[in-house]
Batch of 2 targets.
Target 1
Amino acid sequence: MVKIAQISCGTEYSGVQKEIERAAATFGAEIVIPETDLDYIDEAYQKFGFTAASSGIRLMVARAMSIVEGKSEADAVFIATCFRCAEGALLRNELRRFIQQNTHLPVVTYSFTERTKADELFIRMEALSTIVARKSLLAREKQEGLTLGIDSGSTTTKVVLMENNKIIGTGWLPTTDVIENANVGIKSAMENTEYRLEDVDGIGVTGYGRLTIGKYLKADLIQEELSVNSKGAVYLADHQKGEATVLDIGGMDNKVITVNDGIPDNFTMGGICAGASGRFLEITARRLGVDISELGPLALKGNYKNALLNSYCIVFGIQDLVTSLAAGGSKEDVAAAACFSVAEQVYEQQLQEIDVREPLIQVGGTSLINGLVDAVSTVLGGINVIVPEHSQYIGAVGGALIVSGLGSRE
Amino acid sequence: MKIAIFPPNSLILADLVERRGHEALVLQKEIRKKVTDAEIDSPPLNITEEEPIKGLKYAAIEVPSGVRGRMAIFGPLIEEAEAAIIMEDAPFGFGCIGCARTNELCMFNLRKRNIPVLELTYPTTREETMDVVNKINTFLDSLEDKNG
C-alpha cells in the first residue's frame, strides 16, 4: 500500500480529515502522520529557521524534518493548510521545497476550506499513488502495437489511434454526452484506417469522463489526467529525458506538472476561479464574434496594455471586456488582454506554487491559441515555451502510450 | 464557578481549578460529546463541516476554516465562563490548540467579557512556578469569597 505522509495544519478542526483519508483510501493509499515528539518539534523548528506563531505550523515543520531525516517512512507527501491562512501558505510552499530538495518523494500541496470534499482530492491522491505504484508504466517511452487513447475532458473529447509509435487517426469534438462523444471520436479516429475497435491491443482513458467511458469500453487503463498528460506532453515534445514543466490550461481547471525523465514529481491543479480557464477565452471569442481558432492570431496583433482585463471571476472578466469594447478598445487589444489575463492568473495562482523548470511544454486545446502561448512566455519573463504538434491530444496520446505497456487486450 | 482556562486543554490548569472546588471549562469535555465512533482514536476527527459554519458566529467567512472550527467549540465555553485564567507563552506539553490566530481571538474574547481574568506568563523557574500556583489559588479563592 502506498504511504502518503500528511503534513498539515487545521484539517481536523475544519472537518476535512476524514475526506482526506477517504480520498487516499479510494486509490489504494494510506495516510500516515510522520512521527515526532515534543523535544523533536523544538529541535526541528530551530533547525528549519522559520519563526512561526502557530504551534500547528511548527508541528508541520517537525513532521517534514522527520521525513527528510528518515525518521518516518513515506512514499509521497501531501501538504495542506487552511485556505486564507497566510502563515500556512508560506510554510506550505517552503516545506514543499524543503522536501523536494532533500528527498525524491513526490509532493502535492493543497489549501482547503470546510467545503473540501473527497471528490476534489481524488485526482491528487490518484496521481500521487500512480507516480509511486506505477512508475514503471510511466517510464514507457515508446508506443507499441495498436492502441487507442481517449481523453474525455470537461470541454472536449479527444481520441487518438496509435500504431507502432505513430498517430494514425484522431477525433476531437465538444463534450456533451460522454459515451456518445467517445463513440463518435473513436469512429473519427478509425475512419481512414482499415482497423475496427475489436482490433486494438489496448484502450487507455483519462479525463473527467474516464470512469464512465472506461467502464463502458472495458478499458485496460483508466487513469487521472495528471500523470497521463505529463507523459503525453514529454512524448509529443520529444523531451523524455531531463527536466521540463507541463502546462495545461483546461476548460475547467489548469494543471502544472514538473517532470524528470518523463515521470511527474510535482504538480498543482487549480480550478476555483474561472477567469483563469480556457472557458474564459471561449466566451471572450464568442463576445468578440470570432471563432476560438481566430482568437490567438487576433491577440498577437493587439497590445494587452491597451485594455484592462484582470478579474479572477469569469462574470466580472466579461464585464471588463464589455467595458473595454464600449470605451472604444479594439478587438485585437481586447483579445490580447484576455490572453494576458489568463496567463497572469495561472502564474499568480499556480505557477507560484511550483518551481518552473525549462522548457515549458504547453499543451491542451488552449495551447493552439498562440496569443495565449505568447502571453505565458511574457509573464514568465520570456522563457522558452514549446507547443508540440498534436498538443491538443496529449491526454489521448498519453493514454495510448501508457496502455501499450500493459500487454494485449483479450 | 465556571472557570475558562487558556490553553483550553491544559490538564494542569484544569486540575488546579478543580482542586479549589470550581468547574474548569475544558476542551476535552466538549470534544467528548462529539465522539460517536469508538474506533476513532483522535477525537477531533469527529468535527464536520458544520463546525466551521457554526464558527461564523465568532469570525467572518474570510477567516480560515481551522480558526472557525476551533471557535465553534471554544466560543460557547468563553460565553459560559464566569471567570478565566490565561497562561501565555506556554509550551506544547502544557496545552495547545495549534493556531496562533485562534489564540489571539480566544484571549481577546475572554478579556472583553468583563469577568475576572487572571493573566499569567508561563513560568520558567521553580520560584516562578510556585508564584504562579499561588496566584492561581489566591485568584480562585477570591472568586469563592465574592461568590459568597
Note: The longest helix of chain B spans residues 126-147.
Target 2
Amino acid sequence: MKKTLALVLVVLLVLSIGLTACKQAETPATPDATPTPEVKAEPKVLRVGADEPPALDPQIGTDQVSIGLNNLLLEGLVRIHDGKVQPGMAEKWEISADGLTYTFHLRDAKWNDGKSVTAQDFEYSWRRLVDPKTASEYAFQGYYIVNGEEINTGKITDLTQLGVKAVDEKTLVVTLKAPCTYFLSLAGFLSFMPSREDKVTEFGEAYGTEVDKFVTNGPFLFKEWTHEANYAVEKNPNYWNAAAIKLDRIEYTVVVDAATAINMYEAGDIDMVGLTGNDIQRFKDAGKPVYDYMDGALFYLQVNLKGKSPATGKFLANQNFRLALGYALDRQAIIDAIMKNKSLPGSRLVPDNLMGVKDRYTKENPWSFWPANADSAKAKSHLELALKELNTTVDKLPTFELLNYEGDRSRQFGEAMQDMWLKNLGVKFEMKQIVFKEKLQLATNQQYDVDFAGWGPDYDDAMTFMDLFVKDGGHNNTGWGDARHDELINGAKVEADPVKRSKMMFEAEQIVVSSAPVIPIYARARNYTMQDYVKNVVRSAMGADPDFVYTDIVK
Amino acid sequence: MLRYIGKRLVISLITVWVLVTLTFFLVRLLPGDPFTNPKMTPEIKANLNKYYGFDKPLPVQYARYLGNLARFDLGVSMKYKGRTVNGILKTTAPVSADLGIRAVIFAVSTGLLLGIIAALNKDKVLDKLTIFLAILGVSIPGFVMAAFLQFIFGVKLRWLPVAQWMNPAKGMGFEHTILPTLCLGFGTLAVFSRFMRTSMLEVVSTDYIKTARAKGLSPLQVTVKHQIRNAMLPIVTMLGPTIAALLTGSFVIETCFAIPGIGRQMIIAMNNQDYPMILGLTIFFGVFLIAMNFITDLVYGLVDPRIRVAK
C-alpha cells in the first residue's frame, strides 16, 4: 500500500515538473494576432462577449440574449432596426381604415433547410404563442389579436379562432381586438418570429437547444454552439437582402464577468465591451473611445400605500409624505457619484426614447415634474403638511424599509437615498437587499414600504410605461388607484385617433406622477467601448441590443 | 468485508434520499418561484404552473420526482428552456473535473515539494519563504488572484490568454489551462505545504529515523526512504475531501476565466430558482461527496483493520 502510494506521488511530482516545463516552453508561442496569408479579401469577423442563450425558441424566449441572437438568425414579418420598421418576410402590407385588419404579403424566402417560408408558418407560430399548452411567458404579446387573450386564458379552446389567417401561402391576415398604433413594431418582436411546425413536433421541448435542433430564416446561419463556452453565426448567402449584410461571421464568447470581459477586450480577444463606473473614466483617460446610449430603462421608487405594517402605511398613504420623499432626493448627485455617465434624472414616468404620434412622446408632450437636484425646502414643507394632516410629529416617525436589488451598485444607490432622506427630512430608512426573484415576490405581495425598482420598454410606445399603475393591474404593487387615470388609460387603449390618444396618456401621466405612488429616480444610460474598425453597431432601447445585423468591419 | 461494504452502501443511499427530500421541500420554501417575472400576468403564470406540473399537490410532485430520479431522469432546466439537467451536467461536469484534476496535481505535488524543502531547511530563508507563500495562498481570495494574474500575464505581458477554457477544435490549447489551474490550486498548495512541513518535522524525531541514521544510511537515503514516505501518510486523509472540493468546480474561478464548468451552474440555478437544476446539482454534488467518503472509508478499512472492527 505504502509503495503504491509513494509511486503515485512520485508520478505526480514528475508530472508537475513536466507541467512547469511546458509552461515555459509554450508561453512565448501565444501569438497576438496572426494575419491570414491569403491575399483575397479577409473575412469580416466580429468577436464579442455574450451570455449563454437561455431559449432560442421564439415563442419561448424572453431574454435579451435570445432576442439579440434571434434578431440575426430569424426574421419576422417586419424587421425592427434602430427603432424603425423595415420590410422583413413581408415585402408589403396594408392596414384597413379602422386600423383593425393587417394584410401582410410575404416574399419568396427560404428556411435554412431549403423549405419555403409560408404564411402558414406564421399562422402556426402565432397560434402557438397564445396556446396555453405552450406556456409562453410572453403570451401577452398576442393579446392584441382577436381572441388571443381568450385562447391563452382557456376561455376558447379552438386555436383557429385566433385572429390570424393564412389566406394562401403568401398572404397573412391579422385582425386586432382594438386599433394599435404600434402593432407593426410589435410584429417584429421575437414572440412573433416564426418557428416551424414539423421541427417543433420533431424536437419538442428541445427545439432551439442545439444548432441542429433549430431552423432559421434570417440573415445569418447558426454555425456553432458549445454550451456555456461559445457560439457563432455566419452570413446566410440565400437571405433575400444578403447584399446589405456585411459581416461574414460573428463569434460569441460566453463571458459573464464584466472585469474579465474588459481584460479580454484589452488583450484583443473581443471587439467591443460594456463599461461601468470607474472603467468609463479609465478608458477616457487612456484616449480610448467611450460611447453611450440610453437603454430605455427607468429606475424608480414604488411606494406601498399600505406599508409593510400599519405604522409605516399610515405615512406612505399620505401624498404629501410621498412628495417629501421625492423632493429630498438629489437625482443628479446620485448619477454623478454612482453611474458616472449620461444617465438622466427621472423627471417623469415616460423616458425620452419612446414614440409619440410623429416624434418622441416626451418631445410632443414636454413636462418635467421632479427637479434634477434636491429641493429640501419643498421636501420639508411637504413633510410638515403630511405631519399636520396625520396629526403627529417628526419624532413619532417609524423607521421605513427600502427594498433593494442585490449588488454593490444597488447598495450605493440605497445608501445615497437613505442619507438624503435622513439629512433633508430626518426620515430613517433601513435597507433590505435580496435576490431579484424574492424581491419581486415581496413587491407583488405588497410586503414592503418603498421598493427600488426598474422597468424596461416592451414596445415603442409610451403605453409600455403608462399602463403600469392602473388600479389592481398586474404590475401595480403600490395599492394606489385613481378613477380618472384609469379611465384615461383604458380609453387610450382603444382610441383610434393617435393625437387624442397621446393627449389622454399625457393627462394620465401627470396624474400618476404628481400623486407619487411612483417616484422616478433615473433613466439609465449605458457605456461601451469598441474597436475603431467596427462600424454601424446599433444600440437600442427595445428589441435586439446590440443590433449587429448591418454591422461592418473596415480595417 | 462484504457486510461492511453493504452497510456503508445502505447508509449512503439513505443519505442521498434525505438530501433529495430536504432539498426538494426547502427550495419550495423560498419566496418567489421560477416564473417570478415582472412582465407576467397571473393567467400566464397559471399556464406555466400547469405545464411544469406545479399545479399538483406537493406530495404528488415529490413522488413524481422520486420516480423520475429512480430512472436517473433529473428533469428539464427552467432557465435554459428545454435542456435536460442531465445534458447540462454532462457538458459542464467534465470541464470542472478536468480543471480540478490539473489543480490537484499541481497543488499536491508542488505543495509536498515545498513542504519537504521547508522542513529540510527549518528556520532558514527557504522555510520562511514557504511560510510566506502559504499565508498568501490562504489569504488571497480567488477572484483577486485571478484578476491580478489575468492583468499581468494576459493584458500586460500577453503571454497567456486572459480567459476561456481550452478547445482543441478552435486551436485553444494547454495555455488556456495555466492561469485557472494556478488560481484554483494555490490555496490547496499552501495548505499541503504547511501540513507536509509539520509532518516531516514530527517524523524526524521518531526512533526509526534515529535507527536509520545509526545504522549508517546516508542523509539522502534517510530523507527519501524513511522520512518523506512516513510523513506522507497523514496527507492521504486530506486527499479525499480536497479532490472532491476541487473536482466539483469553483464558481469564482469559472466565472473569472469564462470556463464552461459546473461550479457556475449552481449560482445561476439559485438566482433563477430553477428547481430541477438546483435539485439535480445538489444530488450530483451530494452523491459525489458521499462516493468520495465511501471510497475513503473503504481504503481506511483496507489499510487499518481496526476501523473495520470498531464499526
Note: The mean pLDDT of chain A is 91.
